Amino acid sequence: MTSPLPPQPTTDAARARLVEALVATGAEDRAAFATLYSLTSAKLFGVCLRICGDRGAAEDVLSEVYLTIWRRAGAFEPGRASPISWLATIARNRAIDWRRSAGRRQAVTLDDAPEVADPDPSVEERMIESDDTKQLHLCLDQLDVKQRGAIRSAFFGGLTYAELAERDRVPLGTMKSWVRRGLQRLKDCLSDD
Amino acid sequence: MTTEPTPSASGTEPDTAAAELALGVLDGAERGAALRRMIAEPAFAREVEQWRDHFAMLFAGVADVSAPAGLFEQVEARIDGRAGPQRLVNPWKPTAIAASLAALAMTAVALRPVEAPPVAPAPIVATAPMIAAMAPADKSEAQPALYDAASGMVKMPGPMSIPEGRSAQLWAIEGDQAPRPLGTFRETAPGMYVAEAKMGAVIAPGTMLAISIEPIGGSPTGQPTGPVIASGMLSKV
After folding, report:
1. Contact in structure between B132 and B144 (CB atoms under 8 Å)
2. Label partner for A50 (CA 20 to 30 A): which of A7, B89, B110, B186?
3. Are B3 and B228 within 8 A, CB to CB?
4. Which top CATH class is A1-102?
């Protein structure tokens, strides 16, 4: 399953191809499912690896992810959700489930907090970003470091308020108001076109 | 019976619950309240979906990594039911099962007995029986709902107050996804209600089940339109 992406597809064409493969997968089309896999497995494996932090686990989770995609593709609504968001969200949720079952304690210690070192996207990556993605990053850049860090940790680590507070050794109420203020600023910035 | 929209935690603070639910920072009662709003307030559900799309932009910063060779074939084998013993991604410990059963016993103590689920849990998550303590919106006693993946049926003991000329529809909410419509309940025996999860649907542990009152035969829009009468989280038996 290594058929590569066509060279430099435009964002719209890539998206259309993905929607087509996903919708056909929903109709139990195996060939479309294979195409979907070749188009998305590197991204989704990256997401699983990023969240699980363990290759063996990420492989198991990825297998679960595609099983879930196969069974649930029929529920994808092309007009409502972005296909890659929809797929990556399944990967994120399954990977976070794994992290939770593998032991929350491990996941929230300071030593095991990969999101602390989570790099911002490179310049190169930003150049190929869609406008929406740029907008999110621009808005995140406007938050202070703690707010941004907490939001990224919550997203990639599946950490709840209680776990973020424990990790950063601040009272729960403090963490909640940091993040809430950050989310409110993000909301204002994102709706400010 | 109607469900009032839940106000935000405080009347003065801006309502960030949709973003918080999409981000996954809520737990316990706050998460439960936000999930119920997903069903009761279509505008809230749309906002959660928008936030989910916003946050999904963060995936753009994650480096691609080639998936291991042979993984797709393994997935296909599992789809065809040809898989050998599969390493479990999510090994639920017996102690956790005992704990969740104990928790259920506490919330569902006053119930008439539900039929016993099959004894041996199946090795794959998707086929194991699951149970949810369905908390009614009117805050009366929770009732258990039993999901049998093999038959795709969800069973609940009654009584269920369904207004004349309406149906009680079952919904599944996974993570921060929009509610997914399942079947409508019918009374198969006095005091026993059964709803069908649609063909091919997979319901995983941690899924929130909810029941709303809809026109006969279920919501015409694919999203809940009527009041939510009960909701609860599925866990493995």
Report:
1. yes
2. A7
3. yes
4. mainly alpha
- Number of neighbours of residue A115 by Cβ within 10 angstroms: 18
Domain locations along chain A: 1-102, 107-193
Grade residue A76 by pLDDT with cuts at 50, 70 and 90.
confident
Is A105 an 8 Å CB contact of chain B? no
Closest-CA residue of B relative to A152 is B58
Q: Answer whether A20 touches B (CB < 8 Å).
A: no
Q: Hey, what CATH class is A107-193 in?
A: mainly alpha
Nearest to A60 among B67, B73, B87 (CB): B87
Residues from chain B that touch A125, judged by Cβ atoms under 8 A, are 60-61
Give residue-wise pLDDT tens across range A131-187. Answer: 667 778 888 888 988 899 899 989 988 889 999 999 999 999 999 999 999 999 999
pLDDT for B11 beyond 60: no
Q: How far apart are the first and last CA of chain A?
A: 41
Residue type, B64: D
CB contact under 8 A, A155 and B91: no
What token pair was written down for A62? Answer: 């990825």
In this predicted structure, the answer to whether residue B37 has a pLDDT above a threshold of 80 is yes
- Whether residue A67 and residue B79 make contact (CB cut-off 8 A), yes or no, is yes
Partner residues linked to B193 by β-bridges:
B156, B187
> In chain B, what are the domains?
17-59 (no CATH), 94-236 (2.60.40)
- pLDDT (average), residues A53-69: 93
